[in-house]
Amino acid sequence: MREALHKYFGFDTFKDNQEAIITSILKGHDTFVIMPTGGGKSLCYQLPALMLEGTAIIISPLIALMKNQVDSIRGYSHSDEVAHFLNSSLTKSQMKQVRQDIADGKTKLLFIAPETLTKDENIEFFKQVNVSFVAVDEAHCISEWGHDFRPEYRRIRAMLDAIRDDIPIIALTATATPKVQSDILKNIDMKQYNSFVSSFNRENLFYEVRPKGKKEQTLKQILQLIKQFPGKSGIIYVQSRKTAEEIAQVLKVNNIKAAPYHAGLDAKTRSQTQDDFLMEAVDVIVATIAFGMGIDKPDVRFVIHYDIPKSIENYYQETGRAGRDGLEGYC
After folding, report:
1. In 51-77, which positions are buried (b, 16+ CB within 10 angstroms) versus exposed (e)?
2. Cβ of 312: how many Cβ atoms within 10 Å?
3. I need a surface site. Which of 57, 178, 247, 316 has the fewest CB within 10 A?
């Protein structure tokens, strides 16, 4: 395992529970992982997928998330075929190529949306290939009590049974409320499983609450805050699209490289904004909740909440996007 860790990812040691989790998966046990945002969840399925025979299916909720992960795995690897995604953004011929690479045994990780998995032709295809295990990423999407409920996530068990009844399954989430946990376990029907819960204390994050005055004063405060982090990356969370646009505009006028991000923008613009943020053409994203799920940018230095978040879990998850490189993050 350690050799593989070094070979594929260049690390010499595992973090927290990673080693025990990966051992559980390699032994074919169902595995339930609760790990804070930024704790190294994705390595827990990426490494065993690269080590095991066959293809691991990673069920993931967002297209942008899949692209981000596939790009990062390809970055570590000698060949692009090692990781693919299957979703509605691909053409027919691209989909055919992905299936061919899986059938040829070249693909170790396949990222797929639950909607794509429900299609009969895909289930038929997976019956014929060697599936090493299935990972359900962002598993709180299964639960009506989770903060990103997706009804199609509740059909995963039925689809897996249709493919093969003994596929090992690993569910991963950063949401630890007991209600969400029991909902996930019940819905995926995990009977005998290994469970791993990591500490949720991120020691490198600093939390501060400020009184919110009139709009102009608040914006002035935000500008002053951002000026303390010249050229550094940050995210500002807001509740409405209009506010996202307004604040991004104010920042731009004040020579801060900023962009809005919300569901009202077309997919192309959103994808471009994400890339700009990752490539540092944009420093600050002003976003409604839609932004940041699985965006793997380790050096976010600050997260500002202009509006109060919907729940304490949301707040924890959103602020958890700061300081994933282990350096200081300000919330």
Report:
1. bbeebbbbbbbbbbbbbbbbeebeeee
2. 9
3. 178
